Give the backbone structure.
Amino acid sequence: MAKKQQAAIEIDPQQEEIEQQYKTMTGSQRAAVIMLLLGEQHAANIIKYLEPKEVSVVGASMVDVSDLSQGLVNKVLDDFIETLGLQTNLGLGTADYVQKVIKRALGDEKAATVLGKIMPPSSSKGLEILHWMDARSIAEIISDEHPQISAIILSVLEADVAAQVLGFLPEQQRSEIVQRVATLEAIQPAAMRELEGLLTQQFSNTSAQSANFGGVEAAATIMNFANAEVVSEIMDTMTLKDENLATQIQDKMLTFDNLAEVDNKGIQKLLAATGNEVLMAAIRGADEGTKENFLSNMSERARLLFLDDMEAKGPIRIAEVEAAQKNIMRIARKLADDGEIVLVGKGDDFV
């Protein structure tokens, strides 16, 4: 009898493996599994409500998860159903309801002021167009515009796209634009209408509220995605103009060595998403703390094999090291966006 009870509580090795695989999946991969299970029509209806970057991420993940085991697919579905069971429909349509009530009570003019403080900002149609354009096309549109307009546009773009746009802009414009991104605060309706006029003729869709864009963190995030040459040129020029602002941006920028501060769980997720070849190149130029954070999260056997392979490769170009580090940082930021890891910059404090 005791043996039967012991057998009953023993963990099924196959189930344990599924649990481990599930833990290493990103949020976008789990979402992709649900999309594939829904079928073409339902998945297409959902995609209509996603942002451009979300469409790209989920689309790529749908390819990645096409060969998952049935057990892992079942686990994702079970978790999704369990999560749904904890939700209510209380929040459905809340934003529209709140806006209608406040407008009816206060009138459009006063309501705009109140709603501007309590409601999340919504993108206007003109700004939404930007998210579906490629970086070169955006750069061509703004290359002859005032730097303030360019700064606003860069602020509303995804950071990696904004960095690409910077690379296509004339060299003499880059530093001033990044400086203006870092000092942006509230954008008044008149400026927003001017921006809308540049992007679309549908002025009726322009918000009457001021909007908050930019700031030091936005500038630093854009710079994180720019290539080393562009970053160096911009920061050198900006230091001459405003050394204090340049220092603030640098303090917020994430570098490969910031990965020394990522916890063990985060590093393990990063290791799972990164190839050994790229990692070997990247950690050659890292400080000891960052190297140790990666190596200590490998099994002893994997660590020894990794070090032997890295030594056998011999010296490599600095450009290859920088490219590998950029590659890993892109993966790290994607995992951070999905809520899988936490990235800590020099200017961040935690208690």
Observations:
- The chain has four domains: 2-85, 91-120, 122-247, 256-337.
- Confidence is low (pLDDT under 50) at residues 1-9, 120-124, 201-211, 346-351.
- The radius of gyration is 24 Å.
- Residues 95 and 119 are 8 Å apart (CA to CA).
